[in-house]
Amino acid sequence: MAEACRLQLKTPFRTFRIGCTLHLIPHERSAGGHRGGAMRNTPRRRQGRVLVLEPKRPATTIAYSIVTVLAVAVCAAALLYHTTVWPKQWPHGSISPRTTTIVAVIAGCVAALWFAGAIVNGRRWHIARAVRRLSEAAASMGVLPSDTWTSQVAPRATQIPALGWDDRRPRKVPRPPRLRRVTATHNVVGRRPLSIVYLRTFENQPRARTFLQGAWREFGYVYLLRSAASVTPAEFRQFKRSRGNFTGLLIGSTEQFAAELARPLPGPIRRRRHRFTNVGPQTIRVRDRYGSYPPRTFLCHGSIWQSSVDMLLTRADFVVVDLSGMMPANAGVRYELQRVIDRVPIERIVFLADERSDRDYLHTEIQGAWSNMASGSPNSGTQPRVARLAVTDSFRQIQQQTGPPGQSAPYIYYRLIARRWQSRRLAAELDPDKLRPASSEPLTWPTFPPPGQGRNPETSQWWS
Question: How do residues 74-126 score in pLDDT, each as one tens digit?
Fold first, then answer.
């Protein structure tokens, strides 16, 4: 059923009107999406394209090793070309010794560079595998608890409100006020430093990089969990010196995680250019014109990551859930999405996607978590709510010439580029100190039958 309407939203930030068509759709047997299309339980192929933009450590190590062998072969052939070792049956043209020497020197230098790249990437690959093996061995010996986890089924909420969507592009969001240098008492827009929890898929390297290169760290401390691929060689050497003491490498208990959270916050970073080596598998270089707050990263054992997420959500001023690259096999991301819906008011949640994300599929995933919110969730009730799904960053096509112009085809690839102005507008729009409970000022909404009770499959939902 569809009904034309004029929608007026009164949010804590601004009041805006949207001309829309109202679709009342059942929970589980719906036939329409947020744009009138079919709700998608499986993503389109473009949903996972962001995951293959940057090579992983294993692929990079193998590629560097192969080209190193080829460069060494070219260098050896150039050195042996004018010697008796060169087979007589092979072609032997009129190439001067000076030319072969130049070719040998260039090939040798290139081989040395590629060999260094293979060593650097291979070492990080080896460390990540070693950390996983040691963690599994410690769990099997009882030193650490088992890293297997099960999703606990909580009682569902009896009143689940309708969920609307705010799909405005960042350019439609008002610009933040005058910017200033961050200090220990105020952030880039003059408010107090916030606690921002960032949740994403571990294998999405490009989005983790662009998130840290964005403006989120100008507004407060970013809290995020690390993976084994982010362990640096220095951390691994310190672990080996401690003779297998996991306390200095992995957080293996909720008590230890609480102690890490209770540590005093470091001061803001004054340097404009710096890099992060222990956030992801790759070194992330950033430039902060107004300064920033250092991210707080935690490498947790697999047995406590669920409790760790709950403890992070408890102290969050707002939560950023990056659903870019989310696939049906990402059960951990789906669990985190459900916990965010269960524990954080929807006004303090920002869902992120990239330009190529399948937003129909992401709407379906968010709607599924919303329909299964736990009893006692701050989002339960009868008043309709609005979820914010923002598209950030952009894909840039880069063209490289691999040979002489006109003789070889250019190599074209894509790279995800952070747009700092987008994240700055999104973060500035969220002011947790001004957010009011949903019941303090109800939204002006079109009239439609309220949602049913419990998990009745015939309960109506709406999509704008």
Answer: 999 888 888 878 887 777 777 888 998 999 999 999 999 999 999 999 998 88
User: How many residues belong to the chain?
Assistant: 464
pTM: 0.78
Say how far apart CA 80 and CA 92 lie, in whole Å.
11
Determine the Cα–Cα distance for residues 291 and 268; give it in Å rounded to an integer: 7
Question: The tokens of 157 are what?
Answer: 């909420």
118 near 57, Cβ under 8 Å? no
pLDDT digits (tens, 9 = 90+) for 237-274: 888 877 766 667 788 889 999 999 999 999 999 888 98
Report how far residue 335's alpha carbon sits from residue 343's, in angstroms, rounded to the nearest whole number.
12
Determine the longest span between alpha carbons in the chain, in angstroms: 92
Residue type for position 47? Q
Q: Which residues contact 269 (CB under 8 A, 6 or more apart)?
A: 288, 291, 292, 293, 294
| Sequence spans of domains, the chain | 145-450
Q: Per 3-state DSSP, what percentage of the chain is helix, strand, and coil (rounded to 5)? A: 35, 20, 45
For 70-97, b/e burial (b = at least 16 CB within 10 A) is ebbebbeebbebeeeeeeeeeeeeeeee
